[in-house]
Specification:
seven-stranded parallel β-sheet, globular, Rossmann fold, 51% helix, 381 residues, 12 strands, 2 domains, alpha/beta, five-stranded parallel β-sheet, single chain
């Protein structure tokens, strides 16, 4: 045990630890109070508000790209609305009351949008799902849009709780992010309007060109509760890839820049991530947005298993649209064969903007039609 660890175990060390914990908590609360003040100030600029709940708080560029695409989509489709960004950590801070602040400025025709992603689940503490429930219960008469979600529950109790809360809301439109999530959400939420919609980051496919001088293979792998393979198996995969190309880069979509730094230059950071994927001959990934960034950068991608359906279900959908770019390795030994197959006739031309054209160009109409039908149903009751 080193000197620092010994100090930590003394009564004096424990006092310092508690002091630091309280300091960090108070600093967060101070920041959260400032965010609430800003929300109230921004809301005063218009009588039309979008409450964008669950905006990304990490340095994961997949989640950040969802926030980036959603904000762009709001700007194009709801220019008359003020977008009020609400973070999950502020909802969860018991020392502040974001719900009460929202009530002060909420108008009858305001809309709540929830961040898309893997957010309707109970992994860890399922913090995003609990935030959804808190907002849904607080505003039963406000229209709410759940942007495309992956749905997965391990606990039957948490699954039932989510089902009861979401299903009780009379004005909630739910988008499922993949066919498996669609089936689960239809079972859980029989009272809701549910539609199958791709991840919003797919709206960037077809608008970027990768490098003309591609080199190496990118193993974009996860390190979390969703990973299927052990660390030793990842090492074996990397070694197999080096037999094909000795230049193998192992990384993630999580970067070292702070959350605030990314927000201040969101477009630049998203485009840098796309450029990174566009430098390689092949991407091998078990990351959902690793798959999507590959397609945005027109890079052939081999999908690996995870513990849930998120990535493989995405593969099944995307491979039907882009069959010469998306491949699936059932086992690690399949990777070598697939890499060799790709490199015999590599395709790097710019892909069709299918998902943007067929889905995100139409999303506003989908929502408007739902809102119209909602009004008619309410009027008839």
């Amino acid at each position: 045990m080193n000197f620092k660890d010994r100090i930590k175990k003394t009564p004096f060390g424990k006092v310092i630890k508690r002091y630091l914990e309280n300091y960090r908590e108070n600093k967060k609360t101070k920041q959260h109070k400032a965010e609430i003040r800003k929300l109230l100030e921004d809301a005063s600029r218009s009588d039309k508000h979008i409450y964008y709940c669950g905006v990304c708080e990490s340095s994961n560029m997949g989640d950040m790209a969802q926030t980036y695409c959603t904000l762009n989509w709001f700007e194009k489709n709801y220019p008359e609305y003020v977008v009020l960004k609400c973070r999950t950590s502020v909802f969860r801070d018991e020392k502040v009351d974001l719900i009460s602040a929202m009530r002060k400025v909420m108008q009858k025709n305001d809309i709540v949008f929830f961040q898309s992603g893997y957010n309707t689940h109970d992994l860890g503490d399922g913090r995003e799902d609990l935030m959804h429930q808190k907002v849904i219960q607080a505003f039963p008469n406000i229209e709410m849009i759940m942007l495309p979600q992956t749905v997965f529950f391990e606990s039957e109790e948490r699954k039932q709780l989510c089902s009861n809360v979401y299903n009780a809301h009379k004005k909630l439109l739910f988008f499922s992010r993949d066919p498996v999530s669609l089936r689960i959400s239809e079972e859980m939420f029989p009272n809701l309007t549910i539609k199958l919609y791709p991840d919003i980051v797919t709206s960037l496919i077809g608008y970027y060109q990768g490098s003309e001088n591609r080199t190496g293979i990118f193993l974009c792998r996860r390190k979390d509760v969703e990973q299927f393979y052990s660390e030793d198996e990842y090492l074996e995969i990397a070694n197999e890839l080096r037999q094909i190309d000795n230049e193998v880069t192992i990384a993630d979509t999580i970067i070292s820049a702070s959350n605030n730094d990314i927000y201040n230059q969101l477009k630049e950071y998203v485009e840098d991530m796309i450029k990174t994927f566009g430098c390689f001959r092949i991407v091998v990934t078990d990351k959902y947005h690793g798959l999507i960034f590959s397609l945005i950068s027109n890079t052939p991608v081999i999908v690996l298993k995870t513990k849930d359906h998120k990535v493989t279900s995405g593969y099944e959908w995307f491979s039907k649209v882009y069959p010469d770019r998306v491949f699936y390795a059932e086992k690690p030994k399949d990777i070598t064969f697939l890499c060799e197959k790709i490199l015999k006739n590599p395709q790097y031309y710019k892909l069709d903007n299918y998902f943007d054209r067929e889905y995100y160009h139409r999303l506003k109409d989908e929502i408007d039609n739902w809102r119209t039908c909602l009004g008619e149903d309410i009027g008839s009751n």
